[in-house]
Amino acid sequence: MANVSMVMNQLHQIQQIFNQAQQAEQQIRSQIQQLAQVEQQNSQQLFQLGQREQDTVQQLQQLYQQQQQIWKSIQQCEQLIMQAEQQMRLFQGVVQPSATSQTQTGYYTGAPYQTTSTYRSYNQYRQQ
Predict the structure, then answer these.
(1) Is the four-CA dihedral 114, 120, 126, 128 of positive or negative sign?
(2) Per residue in 77-118, pLDDT tens?
(3) Which one, of 93, 118, 115, 114, lies nearest residue 104 by Cα?
(4) Is 112 contained in some domain?
């Protein structure tokens, strides 16, 4: 009878160990499932970040192209201003050779473009 009781106790202990092992397995499966979900979320976030990075690169390229167009426009304006100044000087020399200095000053300052505030601010912008 003592042997039967001892065997029953051992079977009971084995049953408890088996139950604990099943619970541990269930917890491990649950944790693995949670880790898989987190990994999937991370993959989605990385994909979204990659798309945002692509968008940012495209925007930077567009901004660079716009900046290049602005520089070309500024250079064209600068050339037109210089041409206009040359034509003004020629016009003053041909049409108004006997005009007084007051008339000339009132009509055209004669200040070279490089001394004007427009050129100075443009030059500062260009040096930045």
Answers:
(1) positive
(2) 999 999 999 999 888 877 665 554 444 444 445 555 555 555
(3) 93
(4) yes
Give 57-79 as a DSSP string.
HHHHHHHHHHHHHHHHHHHHHHH
Q: Do the domain assignments include residue 85?
A: yes
Closest CA to 122 of 61, 76, 62: 76
pTM for the model? 0.46
From CA 68, how far away is CA 128, in angstroms rounded? Answer: 15
Tally of domains within the chain = 1
Model confidence pLDDT, tens digit, residues 32-61: 999 999 999 999 999 999 999 999 999 999
